[in-house]
Amino acid sequence: MDESSPAVRWSPGLAALGRDRAVVALESSVLAQGLPVPANREAHRRMGEAVVAYHAVPAVLAVVRGVPTVGLEGDDLERFLQRDGVAKVSARDLGWTCARGRDGATTVAASLALCAVAGLDVFATGGIGGVHREPPFDESADLLELSRTPVVTVCAGMKSILNLRATLERLESYGVAVIGFGTDEFPGFFTRHTGLHVASSTDDPAEIAQVFRMHRALGRPGAMLVVQPLPAETALDERLVEDAIRLALAEARSAGVTGAAITPFLLAAVERQTDGASLVANLALLEANAALAARIAVALREGG
Ligand code: PSU
Ligand code: MN
């Protein structure tokens, strides 16, 4: 961590704690746009508790009234959970949101950018953005930021609202290292299996920490994406998910949804189509990812 950077503000509690403990960065767009109220509050609580349970410190990243912040808390957090005028902020939007003094919830892309200025090494999220099925030219900025930010990023794969094969190929082209945690398959977010092979896999957080040290020593510019399948008891049926996504895509098409609104729209539609089962899965995987990120962060700190 680098508390000296003038570009970010550390919340007071975190600045004190983070000196002696491993810190896990968490994104805020999943709270302000990705999940409905009040499940977003539960997600925030469960992720935080999971990080603490593994002896690390959680730090939600966000732009708070124009100030890039490490450790969203108190009244500020409340505004984000109630989505009171909080914009979805990707990497490109950071400067604008800051200059305008606005509240902004950071996507994976923007969170990675803040990790870089704050000197944070480990970040947990639900699922990364990627290449969309429709329109196929819609590619999340998450991919490009992953290619140029050396941060361990823990996720449950990418939501099957995306084109998984195209996204995985893009990750490869961009040189993003992908490690399966307890799996040699790229997980499908709501489902554990996709049939897409991952070349590197381990079930040891210390080994991930060691690989990351090599990765950095070699000057690799990009992220190390650690993927773990969601907890088995909350995994959804593949058929059900696929049907829900097809319907969601059709809804998005007829509603004419475009740009940054597509991802939140599809997530909400899938939740309706699955009678909320996708929400249960989403919360469980966010918690599991936060826990794994904490284990990796602690291992990284221990190994120096
Ligand atoms: N995956 C989720 N929930 C989310 C997102 C992804 O399960 O809320 C968010 C993340 O913040 C991710 C963003 O970075 O969606 C990608 O949006 P886009 O496709 O517009 O780049
Ligand atoms: Mn997009």
Walk me through this protein's architecture:
The chain is an alpha/beta fold. It has a single domain, classed as Indigoidine synthase fold. Helices cover 45% and strands 15% of the residues. The chain has twelve helices and eleven strands. Strands 1, 2, 3, 4, 5, 6, 7, 8, 9, 10 and 11 form an eleven-stranded mixed beta sheet that branches. Helix 7 links the parallel strand 7 and strand 8. The chain is globular, with a radius of gyration of 18 Å. The mean pLDDT is 95. It binds pseudouridine-5'-monophosphate and manganese (II) ion.
Topology overview:
Blueprint: E1 9-10, H1 12-17, E2 22-26, H2 29-34, H3 39-53, E3 56-64, E4 67-70, H4 74-81, E5 87-89, H5 94-99, E6 104-106, H6 108-118, E7 122-124, H7 141-147, E8 152-155, H8 164-173, E9 177-181, E10 200-202, H9 205-217, E11 224-227, H10 238-255, H11 262-273, H12 277-302
Parallel strand pairs: 1-4, 2-3, 2-7, 5-6, 7-8, 8-11, 9-10, 9-11
Antiparallel strand pairs: 3-4, 3-6
Helix pairs in contact: 3-12, 6-7, 9-12, 10-11
The protein binds pseudouridine-5'-monophosphate and manganese (II) ion.
The site of manganese (II) ion has 2 residues, from loops.
